[in-house]
Amino acid sequence: xxKFKLGIIILIxxxxxxxxxxxxxxxxxxxxxxxxxxxxxxxxxxxxxxxxTGTIPTLNNVIPExxxxxxxxxxxxxxxxxxxxxxxxxxxxRKSGVTEFNKEMxxxxxxxxxxxxxxxxxxxxxxAKSKEKPHLNEQIKSAIEKL
Length: 147
Known about the structure:
By secondary structure, this protein is α+β, with helices and mostly antiparallel strands. About 40% of the residues lie in helices and about 20% in strands. The protein contains four helices and five strands, in the order ααβββαββα. The chain has helices at about 1-30, 35-40, 90-105, 135-145, and strands at about 45-50, 65-70, 80-85, 115-120, 120-130. It has a five-stranded antiparallel β-sheet. Helix 2 crosses helix 4 (about 135-145). The longest helix has 27 residues, at about 1-30. It is globular and about 75 Å long. It starts with a helix and ends with a helix.
């Protein structure tokens, strides 16, 4: 009888351990705006919150966190580039948002060029001044990889 109770206790502990490790994997693909900000700052990118003006560019009913972005070493702050963080409830929701964005941008005429970075539930859009040589592309890629 004692071996049976000990076996049940061990089984319960194993189930609890497996359940906890699965929860960590789920959290591993869910990011917050603060996670993105921390990742950007780790790459010496300065973010400044930028208010919503005009039409709010929602994707899949998610309103972005909008920021101007520049390298910490930047001297001229008069013409910043922008980055939008869309924080979706899930990776699937983010993928739907990307599809929606691509449809909306299909026939758009650009004065700045969107570069999309996807990871987990977060979509980051960097609006660069140059399509051929986006100034902060490598730093932003590195920041997203660090999430």
